[in-house]
């Protein structure tokens, strides 16, 4: 397969002054080293979807909302995902959950991994996200990057950057390599089954 894999880096927060831009920018820099794949930054600010209120689940019928349709179209073009999420009340931001509720088929049979930040390194949000993604037939992967509270506060309040925490880059490299392996394998399987 010669076509480059397409990976979406999804920013899971739309808050004013959000932290999500820092890990997303850092990831996009790391991603440039990986030939054979392109990484698209997907900002939920660009897809202002209302709270999900459609008469039918996207499992049965696509959303009629224009922003949700653009979101679904973009997701359908991708082979895998990296979710960048903070932890809000032991879970993901509402805007990210809502974005997941608006789509279904476009996520199916694709891998996803995670960068979490905040209390407990975003681990509880990532665990919740994994459970949600299984319902969308996404393959959530084991490796993730957890920006600890100490690292998060150092970047937020003390002017530190990801370069001050080299272990995060090591974890991200392993995470990206695993994601690309699964993205290639699952894309090949999807194409093989579609051609039957």
Q: Which outline best applies? A: globular
Largest sheet: 5 strands, parallel
Helical run tally: 6
CA radius of gyration? 16 Å
Question: In total, how many beta strands?
Answer: 5
CATH architecture: 3-Layer(aba) Sandwich
* Straight-line N-to-C gap: 18 Å
Structural class: alpha/beta
| SSE order, one letter for each helix or strand | EHEHEHEHEHH
Helix percent band: 40-55%
CATH topology: Rossmann fold
Summary keywords:
196 residues, alpha/beta, Rossmann fold, 6 helices, 20% strand
Q: Any overview of this molecule?
A:
- It is a single chain.
- The chain is of the alpha/beta class.
- The chain has a single domain (5-194), classed as Flavodoxin domain (Rossmann fold, 3-Layer(aba) Sandwich).
- Helices cover 41% and strands 20% of the residues.
- It contains 6 helices and 5 strands.
- It has helices spanning 21-31, 66-76, 94-101, 123-135, 149-157, 166-194; strands at 5-11, 37-43, 80-86, 110-117, 138-147.
- The chain starts with a strand and ends with a helix.
- The mean pLDDT is 95.
Summarize the structure.
The protein is an alpha/beta fold. It has helices at 21-31, 66-76, 94-101, 123-135, 149-157, 166-194; strands spanning 5-11, 37-43, 80-86, 110-117, 138-147. It has a single domain (5-194), classed as Flavodoxin domain (Rossmann fold), CATH 3.40.50.
């Amino acid at each position: 397969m010669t076509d480059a894999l397409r990976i979406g880096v999804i920013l899971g927060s739309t808050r004013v002054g959000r932290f999500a831009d820092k890990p997303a920018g850092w990831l996009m820099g790391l991603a440039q080293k990986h030939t054979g794949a392109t990484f698209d930054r997907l900002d939920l600010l660009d897809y202002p979807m209302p709270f999900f209120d459609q008469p039918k689940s996207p499992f049965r019928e696509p959303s009629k909302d224009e922003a949700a349709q653009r979101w679904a179209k973009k997701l359908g073009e991708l082979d895998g995902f990296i979710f960048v999420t903070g932890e809000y009340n032991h879970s993901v931001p509402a805007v990210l959950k809502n974005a997941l509720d608006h789509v279904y088929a476009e996520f199916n049979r694709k891998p996803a991994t995670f960068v979490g930040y905040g209390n407990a390194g975003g681990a509880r949000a990532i665990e919740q996200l994994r459970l949600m993604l299984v319902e969308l037939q996404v393959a959530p992967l084991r490796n993730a990057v957890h920006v600890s509270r100490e690292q998060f506060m150092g970047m937020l309040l003390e002017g530190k950057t990801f370069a001050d925490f080299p272990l995060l880059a090591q974890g991200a490299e392993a995470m990206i390599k695993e994601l690309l392996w699964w993205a290639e394998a699952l894309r090949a399987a999807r194409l093989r089954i579609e051609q039957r």
